[in-house]
Structure formats: structure tokens, C-alpha cells
Amino acid sequence: MVPTHEHTAIAVSDVRFTERYVEADGFRIRYQEAGQGEPLVSLHGAGGLRLSRAHALLAAQYRVIVFEVPGFGHSPVNERSQSMPELARTMAQAATNMGLEHINLMGNSFGGSLALWLAVQHPERVQTLVLVAPAAIRPEGEILPQQLSPEERVARLYAHPERQAPASPADPAILAKQQSLIRRLIGPARDPALESRMPGLQVPVLVLFGTMDRMIPSEMGRLYCEKLPNCHLVLVYDAGHAIDADRPEAFASVVSDFLAHHEAFLVNRQSGLIHP
Length: 276
Description:
Blueprint: E1 5-12, E2 15-24, E3 27-34, E4 39-43, H1 53-58, E5 63-67, H2 84-97, E6 103-108, H3 110-121, E7 126-132, H4 150-157, H5 172-185, H6 192-195, E8 205-210, H7 221-227, E9 231-236, H8 243-246, H9 248-261, H10 263-268, E10 273-274
Parallel strand pairs: 4-5, 4-6, 6-7, 7-8, 8-9, 9-10
Antiparallel strand pairs: 1-2, 2-3, 3-5
Helix pairs in contact: 2-3
């Protein structure tokens, strides 16, 4: 196992997340970690690593590990990763080098597509898969986040932008670096190579969409249920694309219940809409 290196710590909702690094596949990958218990590995969306109150709530029960994908944030430019399957193999190697052979895996949007690729490549390692407004299946003629102005992006990301804490101005160099990587990796709106492998994935899958998602229509959720044999779709009321930021308590509640009960969650929960 490649050793990890402790660097610093930040507090989110009074929960202390520690920043560390792991060497994998030639990258030095940053991650934030808090909590104890079964590992819950989280892969972020196109905006980069973002800790929310939902992560802090989940850390009360799980060892939450939020990776920063190589090429995002302050990491060096990533010109090596040429596809989502290749990047998924890198993230799987990062988990291996941390000694994580079996994981609960969660991905938001771009990270949802990445997490799904990791799961179809390594199903034996994934205990449960949580896809949060995943970008693996998107409508034709979509508008990608990098095509929007910062103001439009915020308006589409949250159901209630006015409730979110003011964000620090984004570094133009970081935005340009991330957008270049996303354009290279994101792939088509419908990827036959991925969709052909989804029916063979027997891992329990939870797909979450916000009822007010303005980035990816929540109707896309039913396509995952059609293609994944062990899948359950939950719509979170009054949430946008960033469900964990809009409805952190509801988000953490349904995710923790799913992680605890696996197939029993899928069998016993008939309601597909989570209200306040």
C-alpha cells in the first residue's frame, strides 16, 4: 500500500475533515476524510471537490472519503487521462492504495458517470453504488455546465441559490483547466459502451434526482432503472442538481438508509419521492 500523507484539516458543520494525499497511477491525489466505519468513497461533480453538510452527516456513521479527481482544483493539469474508463481505473487504484478493497461508492453528476464506470469495471469491489444526478445518461442537445456563465451555472445548480453561502470567486485558470478535462472525458450523451455493460451490474444501486434539477432532467432517472437490474430511483422534493447542498438532511437520511439495508431498502421502500 502506498502511504498517505496528512496535510491539514477543515471543519464542516463541526465535523473535522482531514486533507491527505495518496499516490496512484502516477498521480498525487488529494482527498478529504472524516468519520469511522465502513468506507464511503465520494467522487465530485464538474465543479470540483466540495464538502457539504451532507458529507458531515454521513461521517457520523461512515468513513467518508471525498477524492479530488486528478486535474481538478489545485492539482496539476491532467493531460494523461483520455477517457472516463481510464480515469475510473485511476480512481480504483487510489482506493486500492489506501487499502480499500470493498467500498460503498457515491458519485455526483460528472462523478456519477465516473463512479458508474468504476463499478462496471470492478463490480466485485463495490458493495453499493449511489448515483446523485448522474451525468452518464443525458438528453440530446444538452447544455453542458461549462457552456454557462457563472451566474447561470449557480441558478441551475441549486433549487434555492439564495440559501447557499456566498462562494469565493473562482480562479479562471482552475476553471479553464477543469473545463478542458471535462470536454475531453465526458463522452456522448448516450454511451453505448457503458450502457451495454449496465445490465450485467448486479450491485445495489440508488439513483437520486432533485425534482427541480435544471442541469439534467430527473426523467433521465428511469433509464437507469431500465438498464440496471438492482436499481431504485428516489426523487428528492425541492432539490436541484446539487441535492446534498439543497437538502442535506434528506440526502443523508436516504443514503444512509440505503447503505445500511442494501436490497432490503430496494424491496421495502415503495415511495419514490422524499419530502421535507
